[in-house]
Amino acid sequence: MSDMYEGNHEFDLFITDLNGNLRGKRIPANGLKSVMTQGVKLPQSVIGFDHWGDDVLENGLVFETGDSDGICKAVHPEPIPVPWAESERDQILAMMYNADGSPFYPDPRQLLTRIVGRFKALGFTPVVATELEFYLLDGESEAKRVPSPPVITEGNGVRLNKTDCYSIEEMDGLESFFTEVRRACDIQGVPADTIISELGPGQFEINMKHTNDAVQAADHAIMFKRLVKGVARQYDFGTSFMAKPYADKSGNGLHVHFSLLDEQGNNVFNNGTEEGSPLLQHAVAGLLNNMAESMLVFAPHLNSYRRFQNGAHAPTFASWGYENRTVAVRIPESENIARRIEHRVSGADANPYLVLAAVLGAALNGIEGKMTPPKPIEGDAYSTSNELDLLPNRWDLATTSFQKSDFMRDYLGEEFVRVYGATKEQEQEKMHSRISNVEYEAYL
Question: Which of 54, 236, 368, 426 has a 20 to 30 A CA-CA distance from 86?
Fold first, then answer.
């Protein structure tokens, strides 16, 4: 295989840690055959790094194991080109196994694979599509660590400093950039569908086409986040999937659409009515019942909780309804054959593998328990908030709810709860140890 590549050609092999950050190695062409057949060793503790790439000593993966290696194996049969790279380079997406070849379940891709397997055992296949929002920034934002809207490079050359939702003119001014994003998606096999201008200045949303491979849907989301950042730098732009880059502007969400097929390929959420089947109702109930315990997955960082404000199109209560964008779980209007659920809680800063594992796991829990949801919300869900369960609205509260969760232990595993919980606790300690500029302004 390596005979196909010569000279300075290199490969980036990476896994996705629990925070959704890519960790791996850059490999020369002559090492490709070994990589694709035997995999690459990385310490298993890498999966549980904190957001800044430091060991988390309390997660049980470091000193207790002698910081032992796992085996990272490619998940695609061939390397995938990286069209935005300055030199010839491909990428290899991998997931981690134990040294004996068994799955290493803190690996987020392995966790999602296991959840999908539980659906398969019941004769169901999840069909999934994601919607990712991001901000396009000017080229100096990353260096300054302060977000600033970009200047349109074509047309009138204005700075995108105001909301212009669904604007075609705004898209026209960035035609070359989005053409290159489309080209990179096609080369990498990322099934990008519509791109729209969103509510914030320089905010856009990419919708992925649905697929009956939920793990692949998460792969596409991870690849797109890397792709759009790489293409943006070619145009002297920055990008951010941060949940809330601007305090007074719209946040970035990661919405999940899903349905279930039976072994004959029928959508089991469809019973010929707009209400959907009993299985859909069970799935909705499971999503609502386990939403609070899953918030640390949907909102993994300190900034994540700034999205959840009344009237901000991000849900603050465990609610559901038909064709209602103020609720957490929406049943979109569609043809009966396309009956599906939209989960609207996660931020774009969340790990797509964990988001899908938590969403599908909660739906499975509702189906297996034949749970019944409350009455759907009609109208403004925020105005009926006193009747609903408030979701954890702080990082520490979400961490406590997560660590006490029987659902998380039963569906994602005891080891995952230990490792991920320890990671979030260490991150909170680091953040709380730093003195912010706001404190200096108020108290110095």
Answer: 54
Amino acid 241: pLDDT: 96
Which sign does the torsion angle of CA 238, 244, 250, 255 carry?
positive
CA dist 388 to 223, 339, 402, Å?
36, 25, 19
Distance separating alpha carbons of residues 245 and 236, to the nearest angstrom: 19
pLDDT of residue 389: 76
Cα–Cα distance, 90 to 327 (Å, whole number)? 41
Rounded CA gap, 260 and 284, in Å? 13
Phi-psi region of 276 (alpha: psi -120 to 50; beta: other; left: phi over 0): left
Count of all residues that appear for the chain in the document: 444
Q: Read off the DSSP letter of residue 103.
A: B
Confidence category of residue 2, pLDDT binned at 50, 70, 90: very low
CA-CA distance, 76 to 222, in Å (whole number)?
14
Distances (CA, A) of 419 to 12, 53, 357, 368: 26, 14, 16, 27
How many angstroms separate the CA atoms of 13 and 198, rounded? Answer: 33
- The top-scoring range by mean pLDDT among 33-47, 164-178, 385-399 is 33-47
Q: What is the mean pLDDT of residues 19-45?
A: 93
Q: How would you class 231 by CB atoms within 10 Å of its CB: exposed for 0-12, middle for 13-18, buried for 19 or more?
A: buried
Q: Provide, rounded to the nearest whole percent, the portion of the chain with pLDDT above 90.
A: 73
Q: What pLDDT, on a 0 to 100 scale, did the predictor assign at position 200? A: 76
Count of helices and strands (H, E) across the chain = 13, 14
- 222/51 Cα distance (integer angstroms): 16
* Contacts with 182 (C-beta within 8 Å, 6 or more apart), sequence order: 192
Which backbone phi and psi does 195 adopt, to 5 degrees?
-120, 130
Note the pLDDT tens digit of each residue in 119-131: 999 999 999 999 9
359 strand-pairing partners: none
Closest CA to 32 of 8, 14, 5: 5
Report the Cα 94 to chain-centroid distance in Å: 17
Set out the domains of the chain in order of their start, with CATH numbers.
2-104 (3.10.20.70), 117-412 (3.30.590.10)
Task: Pinpoint the alpha helices (H) of 79-149.
Answer: 108-121, 141-144
Q: What's the mean per-residue pLDDT of the chain?
A: 91
Q: DSSP per residue over 355-398, as a string? A: HHHHHHHHHHHHHHTT----PPP-S-GGGGGGGSPBPP-SHHHH
Report pLDDT digits (tens) over 165-212. 445 555 567 888 899 999 999 999 999 998 877 767 788 999 999 999
